[in-house]
Amino acid sequence: MATSSAASALNLATPSTVTVDTQTSGIVSGTDKITAKTVGKEDFLKLLVTQLRYQDPLQPEDPKEFVAQLAQFSSLEQQINLNQNFSSLSDQMKALKNTLGLSQGVSLLGKTVKGEGNSLTLASGQASEAAYQLSKEAASVTVAIQNGSGQTVRTLNLGRRGAGQHTLAWDGKNDQGAALADGQYYFQVSAKDVQGNSVEVSTTFSGTVQEVFQDSQGVWVKVDGRQILLDKIQGVM
Fold it and tell me: What's the predicted TM-score (pTM) here?
């Protein structure tokens, strides 16, 4: 019968073959290779209604099958909505974190802070404050001052240093004794013990917070001209 053929052609969704693309909210039939871009939730329901409309009156479809299809559709729709809710919650949490970060950054304006990093700012020939910490006593400590291009402009041989924190002193000059241009620089500390083994070193900076701003990476503070992520701030001095 024609009605039977129509019902057969439209019977695209069964509990064993229907899957869902939670990114596009589409229902996909593994048997008929229908993509999630062409069949959505509304289309799925239309297929069920059409299937009922064109079923063979002498051989009606099993109502249990329709109940199973609707139950599966309801479960898949809940999964889609749950994923969308999680995505929305994640966006809200990120926005809240940035808002709190900006508030925290604003509260630091004008204060002297200490943070994790190895940057230096040279202004009017005066280098900003920085420090390094040795995990144990070192027989030799060498500091390489680098410009923004990564080129070493000054090497400081500091000799033996004990365990703990040490202030970095740099006069803003290169190896030839010439004053360097104002700008941002970096320092790399290398330390070795009496056996020639490397000693663990951590570097910190300190300065006054001058500005707070936000971009796609997070909340930043400008400390004596250096742009530092708020997460790198260790404390207020």
Answer: 0.54
In this structure, the number of other CB atoms found within 10 A of the CB of residue 184 comes to: 15
The tokens for 170 are: 């740099």
Tokens of 174: 């290169």
Complete domains list, the chain, with CATH: 2-101 (no CATH), 111-236 (2.60.40.4070)
- 215 - beta bridge partners? 218
**Taking Cα atoms as reference points, which of 135, 137, 119, 84 lies closest to residue 222?**
119
pLDDT, tens only, 82-129: 777 777 777 777 777 777 877 888 888 888 888 888 988 898 989 988
- Angle at 99 (CA atoms; ends 93, 103), nearest 5 degrees: 145
| DSSP per-residue codes, 134-154 | ESS-EEEEEEEEE-TTS-EEE
